[in-house]
Amino acid sequence: MISLETQKQMIFDFSSTAVESKQNQFEISIYPEIILKINFRRYPNKPKIELPKKITKNIPDIEQFIPELRNWNKLAPPQMSDIIRSIMQTLESITGKLVHISNSLFEELMVIARENHPREIFCVLRLKNGFLQEYILSPQTVSSEKSAVFFPHRIGRDRSIIASFHNHPSGVFKPSVQDLKSFRLNPVNIIVGAPYNSNCMGVYDSLGNELKFKIW
């Protein structure tokens, strides 16, 4: 098991902004306006994670995006530096500062788009450990060469789903008027155009503004 002292040292090594404000309590500046607080008083039990109210107002439960934190094992605690990195990337992706996409998911989506060409396909994406990592095909989606009609209520409630993905067989990866209407359902929306690679891909927020992204 990782000792508390080792956990502390890994936090200091991970972030130059980390300070031990009180015994076994840390404050880490994720951004100038966001301070992450971690309380290790009951370690090896799960530490208490605290984010600013302006963040928890929109993201009430950060654990739903980070399985290792949600399913914390006190007999074999995960490295807190990995948890902190996942929290940072989760916040970056949801707020649109930088959308993190796993390379494996990207490759899977490109294969699906190529296999269904020239039809449009639509799916939603799950954020997990700081990355968009999993896709869910919308049940009974009606697709054609010009559009795809989906029914989000058939997927069920899942707050870890924060993004949509669809392809444009035309090769144009700018959002259409209809796309902009559907974008309002998610903070992150991805469009890829033929021939389906990262050079033909755009990532947009709920209003259609382009977002920076990283595939890795």
From TrEMBL:
Matches recorded under Gene3D superfamilies: Cytidine Deaminase, domain 2
The JAB domain, residue ranges: 103-198
Annotated SUPFAM superfamilies: JAB1/MPN domain (SSF102712)
Keyword terms, alphabetized: Hydrolase, Metal-binding, Metalloprotease, Protease, Zinc
InterPro entries associated with the record: JAB_dom_prok, UPF0758_CS
Superkingdom as given in the UniProt entry: Archaea
Keyword Zinc recorded: yes
Keyword Transcription regulation carried by entry: no
A Pfam family that the UniProt record links to this protein: Prok-JAB
Protein name stated in the entry: JAB domain-containing protein
Protein source organism: Candidatus Lokiarchaeum ossiferum
